[in-house]
Amino acid sequence: MLRRLFTLTVGLLIAVPGLAKNKAEKSVPDYILHAHTVAVMVDPGAGIDIEDPRANQVAQKDVETALLNWGRFQPVISTQQADLVIVVRKGHARVVDQTVSDPRQNNRVGMIDPTQNGVSVGAQHGRQPDGTGSGVPDASDRDPAHPQTEVGTTEDTFLVYNGDVKDPLDSPVGWSYIAKDGLRSHNVPAVDEFKKAVAAGDKAAAAKHP
Predict the structure, then answer these.
(1) What residues have CB less than 8 Å from 94, skipping those under 6 apart?
(2) In what order do the strands lie in the sheet with 96-101?
(3) Which residues share a beta bridge with 98?
(4) How far apart are CA 105 and CA 83, in angstroms?
(5) Minimal CA–CA distance to 83: which of 40, 136, 119?
(6) What is the C-alpha separation between 59 and 70, in angstroms, rounded?
(7) CA 148, CA 48: separation in Å to the nearest integer?
(8) 3-state SS, residue 159
(9) Where are the alpha helices (DSSP H) in 20-86?
(10) How far apart are CA 28 and CA 26, in angstroms?
(11) 120 has which bridge partners?
(12) How far, in Å, CA of 82 to CA of 75, rounded?
């Protein structure tokens, strides 16, 4: 019975991402159009891929760099200073994969430096809030990394939340993009699609209030 239940659960998890493949939300809420700052974080529930342990951190930095190059929003380290919170998660090579659980992936000491086209050391210390009110444990927390079996998706995930609410990640997603290689390094398709959605939102807003 348990085996059949596990098979059914895996089947449902496989089917749901498939429905969202290469799909981006077409419209953006007004708070995105009025935002100025954005924090990019790794999904707190994402495990570390044993075969590519820095995949999520690389995606995080690539998104920040793409946002800097765009110039519409100013990336910041802390979610507490951000109008928007973007949560990224790299897909796995397999739907069921071996990963390492480590909640400290979002702990960074640094600042967003446009002159360095990325992240440089120097600003934030301590833990980075995870947007759910609980906070992401830092190195001082005694919660060591441990292997786990992760059932997820092979597609990359890019989710945009309202940073001006108490617990951003507990609020509805404002805009999303889920696709294979959506967070591809150096040329980040998710950011390109987000730019198109924001441009369409600006156009629609201008039409309403000429």
Answers:
(1) 154
(2) 48-49, 96-101, 146-151
(3) 149
(4) 22
(5) 40
(6) 16
(7) 10
(8) strand
(9) 30-33, 55-70
(10) 7
(11) 111
(12) 8
Q: What is the chain's pLDDT, residue by residue, as a tens digit (210 residues)?
A: 434 433 433 343 433 333 444 556 678 999 999 999 999 999 998 878 777 888 999 999 999 999 999 999 999 999 998 999 999 999 876 544 555 655 666 776 555 655 555 554 334 434 455 555 544 433 334 455 555 555 557 899 999 999 999 999 999 999 999 999 999 998 899 999 999 999 999 999 999 877
Locate 186 and state its tokens. 């150096």
**Which of 186, 199, 157, 167 is closest to 24 using CA atoms?**
157
- What lies within 8 Å, CB to CB, of 124 at 6+ separation is 77, 78, 108, 109, 110, 111
Beta bridge partners of 97: 150
How many residues are recorded in the chain?
A: 210
